[in-house]
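Throughout this chapter, every protein is written as a compact record of paired, labelled lines. The reader may check this reading against the record printed directly beneath this paragraph:
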Amino acid sequence: MDLGLMSEGGGQYLRFKPSVNGWFVDGEEVELKGFTLDPSSLKTGWGQIQEGEAPSWQWDEKLGVRSPQPAPEYRRGFSIQAFVKDAGWREWSANGVGALMGLTNLWSKIDPQLKANEGKAVQVAYKGSTAEQKGKGNTRIPNFEIVGWVTMPSANIDGAMDTPPPKEKVSEEIF
């Protein structure tokens, strides 16, 4: 009898996989047009991510200030909360080059707008990815565009959304 205790990665998450140029929510591939990010949830640090195992993270004490690398197999990475249409809040975490470059490029657009939008969420459109050779390998860098800033959606005690993010300033039905 299967007790149902073992799972393939489990949990609720959002992932970009450059190898297949696709987005996955809870392990299922989705056609992602965009999402809403909670900028206050961004963490950076060192992560070890292996297929079939829970990720192991050591977060920086302060955003933008690198903590010491805990072991050689740990690589720089991030975690941020994203609201995905038809799925709700999911953690997007990664330590792969493509995702890191994509988030770094996006953050360079978000950061200058943070002070004026304190306590708000940012709506982001996914604009495809760009193939790039890095070192001896290839990756894909996700491209994003800021669509607007909205009131932070509220979540109930178990993290599920009471209401989806408002559709302020959004022309497409992507959020």
In short: The CA atoms of residues 77 and 95 lie 4 Å apart. The chain has one domain: 13-151. Residues 1-8, 156-162 have pLDDT under 50 and may be disordered. The helical segments are 97-110.
